[in-house]
Design brief:
two-stranded parallel ribbon; globular; Spore Coat Polysaccharide Biosynthesis Protein SpsA, Chain A
């Protein structure tokens, strides 16, 4: 796998020494391991967008996003890539396409995530089962056509907005079943504010979509 994938780490001045560790590893993998260092934490969404822009400035045809705590199995990168080579424009590593495939989460967290996705499907009309998934592979053309600077949300709703935007633009979104294993160390960044952003953000996305559709019909 090392010959197939390059790795970009986005470090928002992490206090756990991530940057120092990456810098040491870069000596061993100078042409495969890269890092973007940002001075402050500016939100999940802005970190991913910075990474997308970095990838688009290179020659990558497939761009992945994933957690760096092994909640996402690196072996599944090959399966997401194969889905995009086959027919997907966006391949989503899905926890819910074949049931509930989550390990080490408390039941309350599982139910919140599962029903959040059901809520998003109901409001938006998307058929994606795992609307909040953060393990994905984009074909380059998708990111080139999304106005990344106009993506509104920075937290939990960012994952939803990117899928919704991709879907509304007519790209093919395919779910690939994965098993999600929660981190053994560290803490979740899920907060009440982030969850509220997702709940109300979905309504804003739908209203904005209606407004744009209405404007086109009346212009």
């Amino acid at each position: 796998m090392g010959d197939l994938f390059d790795i970009l780490i986005i470090d928002d001045n992490s206090p756990d020494g991530t940057a120092s560790i990456v810098e040491e590893l870069q000596k061993k993998f100078p042409n495969q391991l890269f890092m973007l260092k940002r001075a402050t934490k500016s939100g999940l969404g802005t970190a991913y967008i910075a990474g997308f822009k970095w990838a688009l400035s290179k020659s990558y045809e497939y761009v992945f996003e994933m957690d760096a705590d092994f909640s996402h199995n690196p072996d599944d990168l090959l399966r997401l890539r194969e889905a995009c080579i086959s027919n997907a424009d966006l391949a989503v590593g899905s926890r819910y396409i074949t049931g509930v495939n989550v390990v080490n989460w408390p039941m309350g967290r599982v139910l919140m995530s599962y029903f959040a996705s059901a809520y998003v499907r109901c409001i938006t009309g998307m058929k994606v089962r795992d609307t909040t998934a953060g393990f994905k592979c984009y074909r380059r053309i998708v990111l080139e056509n999304i106005a990344l600077d106009k993506i509104k949300f920075k937290g939990y709703a960012f994952q939803i907005e990117m899928k919704f935007t991709t879907w509304k633009m007519g790209f093919n979104v395919v779910e690939v079943p994965i098993i999600f294993t929660d981190r053994k160390h560290g803490h979740s960044k899920m907060t009440g504010g982030i969850f509220s952003e997702a709940v109300f953000g979905v309504l804003k996305l739908k209203i904005y979509s209606w407004f744009r559709k209405y404007s086109k019909h009346t212009s």
